[in-house]
Write a structure and sequence with these properties.
By secondary structure, the protein is mostly helical. Helix content is about 75%, strand content about 0%.
Amino acid sequence: MTENIDTRTTPAVRWAAIVWGALLAAVAVAGIAILAAPELAMALNESVSALLLEAEAGWILALALMALGIAIAIGGLVLALRRSAKAPSAT
């Protein structure tokens, strides 16, 4: 006699897609806000051009390391969310 065993599981949550989607949505909202406010766009343009004219190797290295740190932090967040989703719940 065979037993009817329910083997259905819930679909996997794609945490990386959720985190990166939220990050890209935030960048899109910031871009729309800059485009919608011309005075903000002009102020940002003046700030960035002044920074680029005074950029030195140390600042460029610092920005590159900061970008790497942000990427590592996002990766850690995704890994933590994925592990917490796979961890057995204590019920």
